[in-house]
């Protein structure tokens, strides 16, 4: 089937196009609301600026598809294949992408607020400046993903893998990162105020000038982390391991450092919990 035939049948009221083959079809700017594309072949399909609200893409193959600027609200992408797809500037509010394959996909400036991204694979994906407010990313894989300047306020990243991810200047205020892996991640100038990072692993991460005000970072691995100039005001660091950490000029006023391991840590110029400067 080609794009023209699909549009003709859609205009006649047909909505069921399960398992259809539209490899490489051009459907740019089309209105295809509520269509059923379950298990369809839409590899390299052009859906730029299309209205796809409520569409069922469950288990569809959308590898390399172009969705730039598309309306994808309330869309079903459960277990869909979207490797290297371009979803920049799309509206994905209330969409369901659970268990989707999104390796190297681009979501730059996309709106993913309150979207379900549970157990997705976003390895090396681009989510720069994306809005992920209150999104569900539990158990997802974002290894080496780029989230520079992304909004993750209130997002749930429990047991998520963010090893070597770029979260520079990201907004993670009140984000939930329990038992999350952030080994080697870039958190420079990120805002993690009031975030919950209990039991997480931030070994060898960089968090230069990061905001961790009133965050819960207890029972966390922070070996070798660079926290130069970071704000840890009222941060709970109890029982955490900061062996070899760099805390130069960091602010630790009113922080809880009970049972913290600071072996070989560098504290030059740090403001300690009691308000005195470390000598």
Q: Give the overall silhouette.
A: elongated
How many strands, which pairing sense, and closed or not: the largest β-sheet?
none
- The number of helical runs is 1
Helix content: under 10%
Q: Care to count the β-strands? A: 0
* Helix and strand run: H
Strand content: under 5%
Kindly, what is the distance between the CA atoms of the first and last residues, rounded to a whole number of angstroms? 74 Å
Return the average pLDDT rounded to an integer: 97
Report low-confidence residues grouped into runs of 5 or more.
none
- Gyration radius, rounded: 22 Å
> Helix/strand/pairing class, anyone?
little secondary structure
Write the layout of secondary structure elements.
Blueprint: H1 3-11
Task: Characterise this structure.
The chain is largely without helices or strands. The protein is 3% helix and 0% strand. The chain is built from 1 helix and no strands. The mean pLDDT is 97.
Keywords summarizing the entry:
279 residues; 3% helix; little secondary structure
Provide a short characterization of the protein structure.
This protein is low in regular secondary structure. The protein has 1 helix and no strands.
């Amino acid at each position: 089937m080609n794009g023209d035939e699909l549009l003709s049948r859609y205009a006649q009221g047909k909505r069921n196009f399960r398992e259809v083959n539209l490899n490489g079809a051009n459907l740019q700017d089309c209105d295809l609301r509520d269509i059923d594309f379950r298990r369809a072949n839409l590899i390299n399909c052009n859906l730029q600026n299309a209205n796809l609200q409520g569409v069922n893409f469950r288990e569809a193959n959308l590898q390399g598809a172009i969705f730039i600027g598309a309306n994808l609200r309330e869309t079903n992408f459960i277990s869909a294949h979207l490797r290297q797809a371009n979803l920049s500037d799309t509206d994905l509010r209330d969409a369901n992408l659970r268990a989707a394959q999104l390796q190297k996909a681009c979501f730059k400036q996309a709106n993913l607020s309150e979207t379900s991204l549970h157990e997705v694979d976003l390895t090396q994906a681009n989510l720069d400046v994306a809005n992920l407010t209150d999104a569900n990313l539990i158990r997802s894989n974002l290894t080496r993903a780029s989230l520079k300047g992304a909004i993750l306020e209130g997002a749930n990243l429990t047991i998520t893998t963010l090893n070597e991810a770029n979260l520079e200047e990201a907004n993670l205020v009140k984000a939930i990162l329990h038992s999350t892996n952030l080994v080697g991640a870039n958190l420079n100038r990120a805002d993690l105020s009031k975030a919950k990072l209990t039991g997480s692993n931030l070994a060898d991460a960089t968090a230069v000038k990061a905001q961790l005000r009133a965050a819960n970072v207890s029972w966390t691995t922070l070996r070798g982390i660079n926290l130069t100039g970071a704000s840890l005001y009222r941060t709970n660091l109890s029982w955490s391991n900061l062996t070899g950490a760099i805390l130069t000029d960091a602010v630790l006023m009113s922080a809880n450092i009970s049972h913290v391991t600071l072996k070989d840590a560098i504290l030059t110029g740090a403001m300690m919990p009691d308000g005195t400067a470390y000598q």
